[in-house]
Amino acid sequence: MSRRHRLHLACLGLLAAALPARAAPDPAIAAHVFQQAREICQADAGQLWGRSLCGPIMIVDPRDRGMVANQADAEGVLSPTGEVHAGTLPAGVMVANTAIDWAGERWTQLMWPVSADPDMLRAMVVHELFHRIQPELGLRVPEGDNAHLDTLEGRYLLQMEWRALARALMALDAQARRGHVADALAFRQERRRLFPKAAAAENALELNEGLAEYTGARLGLRLPEQRLAYATYALARQLDAPSFVRSFAYASGPAYGLLLDEALPDWRRGLGGDTDLGALLAQAWRIGPARPGEVATRSRRYDPDGSLRLAEERRDAERQARLAAWRASLVDGPVIVLPLKRTRMQMNPQTLVPLDDIGTVYPVLRLADEWGELVVEGGAALVANAPRRAVVAVPRGGDLLAGDGWTLHLAPGWKLVPGERQGDWTLKQEAAP
């Protein structure tokens, strides 16, 4: 069986569905997840990153905050239940696939239900285990604005880079792989030429999320063919994302990481907050900068009939219409202004859409602050940059707590009052009696 055929079959094996929703995390399944995590981190023994991945893990049901953990907590919230500890995560603690500080320790948090596919489960668990130790490695850096990845040229050149990376991963010999890597780096170089601020912003997200996704593939999957299949699949699955702005690194991270493993095995040593994975790969393969004017020729290798270009042009026209509608409703029209001070957010990174230099539109969002919680499901909320605040359009009718695709839940002592502009509303805390 050819390597390409094995990769294809392995990719198909990654397409398993998630477990059906159940009430609270199942202790038996949680114990299995904890066992998988323990086996992975013990097998690695800190070799990949110079730190052990082992540590506290909790699995939390976002509906009722029921949780199962692999150890007790210092606040006595968790009680022993067979092999695990169970309880209810206190209100106010974020629920997401992430790393959190709670009860005096840094935890890996996973959301229930977990994947039913063994390989996807292991990769996801390792991704989040890495996030727990990431600050110790100095590889958790402030993220920049990748709004250029929602433009026509930004999206097109990113997908050209992805297509070249996918062919590099599937190449059957080193010469072919090097050629595809050179093409990927040329598209990357051209995108960053067109958008001078792109390099720093893209590098930051590739370090924050790309390295975590690479680590998930590298340690969560046992065979090299599985890892290459995962990286190839990661490039393909992002194509359906409504936006690449916050999600692109989940695709590029595994690809660059695995290609670097082959070309420069010790590439992880000395990484810092300004590391460029593309520059490391160019150094490993001794690939110099692309010559000006080569992009059109290279593009024909990966978009020979121009169909991707045409699709992106149509998408951009539709995007401009959506942006105009959001400007009208979330900037120019009457809005409810929600101040952001002690904010906790859950969102789908694939749905974020930059709105000029004003901020980012969130069609899916759960935002909590001292005034309560905003839940957006299929609507639109704008999180503005300066001053930092969230806004939703004032709904038609008399109910100011529910609009088209969003609901506002106010904490006790808070109320809506007229805002600075006529027609606007904002939040105010009532004085204590």
- Binned, the helix content reads 40-55%
Number of beta strands: 16
Helical/strand content category = alpha+beta
Shape by Cα distribution: flat
Give an overview in words.
The structure is a single chain. With 433 residues, the chain is an alpha+beta fold. The chain folds into 3 domains: 96 residues, no CATH class; 158 residues, no CATH class; 110 residues, no CATH class. 42% of the residues lie in helices and 20% in strands. The protein is built from 11 helices and 16 strands. The strands form 2 sheets. Strands 7, 8, 9, 10, 11, 12, 13, 14, 15 and 16 form a 10-stranded mixed sheet that branches. Strand 13 and strand 14 form a beta hairpin. Helix 4 packs parallel to helix 8 and helix 5 crosses helix 9. It is flat. The termini are far apart.
